[in-house]
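Private note to self, pasted from the team thread so I don't lose it. Backbone tokens:
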């Protein structure tokens, strides 16, 4: 009998497995599942039976079948890697561009922001600053850009400036600062949100300065701040340090002003008006 490469099993052979009569085809399937588990190919282990049946039904060659099976494993791995990168980034919320209303902030160029979503600026190790009043979507855009980077296969770390400084101080106290700086170094994008909201100790400022200065032309930083650059002297206590930092941060940087009415405030006023009209 001549059979296609993946047509169903031939005459069923029975043999004894643990005192039970098991068809040969089932044993092969079970062995194959065990091999996939051992080789850590879970998607192939889950999908091979369905794909094999489909391949037999559509007269695919062994090679075509294997190609589809390995493609599934690779796709699942890529999807899992994105999930892991997003988890490791430590975003406070997952906000994306699909929920961002660009018409609310006419001064912000939608094409320019979406262009940043392609992550070329991160490959080029340049920076991004989102400066503006509170509630205008700085954190939202920063997270959306971070998510885009994770999806593009880049490692991201998200901190508020206050969190980052207190973490740096803690690591220094525990003599593990170098290890932590190494971890930050491995992230292609470091997001430092809300710079300027909280005042920092001199030691904290120096540590933050060190992180920023170390990344110059080696890794990207995205900073959001409610303070215009002219007031950054307040954050970095001292004109010399501020000038040195701004020089490095803005040398290769996309700077967006996000000033306007708070989106939160606008939305709550809208809903209040709506309720009154009812
Ligand atoms: P900021 O960081 O500038 O203070 P946020 O990004 O935290 O502001 O925005 C405050 C809230 O308003 C968030 O829930 C955010 O998703 C929402 N928001 C702000 N701007 C917009 C916008 N243009 N479109 C949709 N949601 C927005
Ligand atoms: Mg914010």
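Design output:
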């Amino acid at each position: 009998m001549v059979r296609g490469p993946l047509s169903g099993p031939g005459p069923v052979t029975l043999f004894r497995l643990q005192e039970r009569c098991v068809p040969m085809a089932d044993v092969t399937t079970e062995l194959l599942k065990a091999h996939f588990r051992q080789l850590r190919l879970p998607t192939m282990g889950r999908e091979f039976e369905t794909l094999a049946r489909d391949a037999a039904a559509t007269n695919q060659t062994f090679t075509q079948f294997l190609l589809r099976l390995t493609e599934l494993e690779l796709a699942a791995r890529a999807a899992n890697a994105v999930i892991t990168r997003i988890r490791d980034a430590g975003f406070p919320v997952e906000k994306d561009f699909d929920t961002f209303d660009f018409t609310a902030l006419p001064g912000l160029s939608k094409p320019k922001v979406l262009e940043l979503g392609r992550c070329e600026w991160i490959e080029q190790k340049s920076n991004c600053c989102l400066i503006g009043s509170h509630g205008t979507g700085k954190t939202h855009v920063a997270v959306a850009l971070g998510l885009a980077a994770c999806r593009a296969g880049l490692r991201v770390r998200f901190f508020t400036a206050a969190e980052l400084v207190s973490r740096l101080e803690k690591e220094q106290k525990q003599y593990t600062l170098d290890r932590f700086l190494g971890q930050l170094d491995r992230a292609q994008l470091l997001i430092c949100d809300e710079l300027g909201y909280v005042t920092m100790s001199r030691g904290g400022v120096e540590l933050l300065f060190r992180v920023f200065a170390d990344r110059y032309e080696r890794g990207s930083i995205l900073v959001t701040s409610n303070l215009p650059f002219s007031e950054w002297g307040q954050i970095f206590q001292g004109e010399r340090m501020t000038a040195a930092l701004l020089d490095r941060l803005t040398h290769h940087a996309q700077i967006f002003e996000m000033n306007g009415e708070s989106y939160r405030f606008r939305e709550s006023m809208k809903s209040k008006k709506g309720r009154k009209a009812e």
